Amino acid sequence: MNPVNFDISDIKLADAGKQRINWADSEMPVLASIRERFAKEQPFSGQTVAACMHITTETANLLRALKAGGAKVVACASNPLSTQDDVAASLVKHDEISIFAIRGESQEVYVSHIDSVLDEVPTITMDDGCDLVTRLHTVRKTNISQVIGGTEETTTGVIRLRAMEVDGALEFPIVAVNDADTKHMFDNRYGTGQSTLDGVIRATNVLLAGQVVVVAGYGYCGKGVASRARGMGAQVVVTEIDPIKALEAVMDGFRVEPMAIAAKEGDIFITVTGNRDVIVEDHFRVMKDGAILANSGHFDIEIDLKALERLASGERRRMVRPMVEEFLIDGDSGPIKIRVLAEGRLVNLGAAEGHPAAVMDMSFANQALAAEWVVKNSQTLKSKVYDVPREIDDEVAKLKLASMGISIDILTDIQQEYLTSWNHA
């Protein structure tokens, strides 16, 4: 038996998981180069890294890089539907990394797995949605004194953390990896755009061409979804609450409407706001028969599922395909079938495989380097949310370009001097 604690679905899946992890690794050259350096320098010697993240092939390669750097690594899922069970098994068997994650686990098991990770007494946290850090700051406060810092991967998590900082509740430094340019400009836009539509198509086999796709939210994730949906022939409607983002969507050529109007027109709805109650009962009642609802925001609260369950109580809800649940409700103009994908959770992970490895290469390179920065600077960091240092962001971009065989120009000394002076004629 492996000398690590774990709770996974089936250890027999390990060999299949290893093949898929290696496949992803071949698409992640930046992280591979960092792993190679970590193995030589051992920057995490003596550290215990606790990660609450999607247990996918890409995450596996991040965890392997941290272990190569000398860390004891423990991990749990950041979403009950995002675990790839074969990957979890491979990490336990082949890498001797403690994993507490089972695809489809209940909310109770999900929370118990977070506690199992915290039982390993982490010194560094890696979060994807802030659930681990929230647990540390509420139920498991006795573990905080051991933590020197952490990182956060998502927009939702960073919003939570900044609110904690403002309230004076944050008790250790966190690096907002999500806000790095080489993360949100690529992972959020290109990764979410492609993987979300991949999830919708895998779940439904629907033809996007000619459909009216309503995208709720026009941040980087929404931009990616809207762009890719249009590229596949859909008519895209954007809903927003931010006037600047709404204006940007208009200038990008999309129709912008309130959800109350868009609800009557959409064939497919995709929420990517990071907020709650984006699609609610009044919207359900006016939707087209057969409307498809998907969420690609971090938590399952963007679609008001409790209201939908109440409207379709009794025998009027059923599974019609894997990851597709149909609700029959009484709409304003008669009966309406509404189809919800992946339980309203992240559709790109619940119904597909998440972001492509090539884009996660940059995100997880940022995670690894940000964690190393925390270790190096732990004595001087304060309990606040830090941006990823610019030199890390630039280094990740340079490494990615090099891996793609792309070179760029470099400023001459004269050009550099011109850009940093004010008295040139």
TrEMBL record:
Gene Ontology CC annotation, any one: cytosol
The protein's annotated pathway: Amino-acid biosynthesis; L-homocysteine biosynthesis; L-homocysteine from S-adenosyl-L-homocysteine: step 1/1
Main location: cytoplasm
Binding site for NAD(+): 154-156, 188, 217-224, 240, 275, 296-298, 348, 355
SUPFAM superfamilies named among the record's database cross-references: Formate/glycerate dehydrogenase catalytic domain-like, NAD(P)-binding Rossmann-fold domains
Positions of the S-adenosyl-L-homocysteine hydrolase NAD binding domain: 188-354
Molecular functions per Gene Ontology: adenosylhomocysteinase activity
Cofactor note: Binds 1 NAD(+) per subunit.
UniProt-annotated location(s): Cytoplasm
Keywords of this entry: Cytoplasm, Hydrolase, NAD, One-carbon metabolism
Cofactor: NAD(+)
Keyword NAD assigned: yes
One GO term (biological process): S-adenosylmethionine cycle
Record field: catalytic activity: S-adenosyl-L-homocysteine + H2O = L-homocysteine + adenosine
Entry binding sites for substrate: T56, D128, E153, K183, D187
InterPro entries: Adenosylhomocyst_ase-like_sf, Adenosylhomocysteinase-like, Ado_hCys_hydrolase_NAD-bd, NAD(P)-bd_dom_sf, S-Ado-L-homoCys_hydrolase_CS
Enzyme Commission code: 3.13.2.1
Family that this chain belongs to: Belongs to the adenosylhomocysteinase family.
Its job: May play a key role in the regulation of the intracellular concentration of adenosylhomocysteine.
Protein name per UniProt: Adenosylhomocysteinase
Organism: Acidithrix ferrooxidans
High-level lineage: Bacteria, Bacillati, Actinomycetota, Acidimicrobiia, Acidimicrobiales
This protein's encoding gene: ahcY
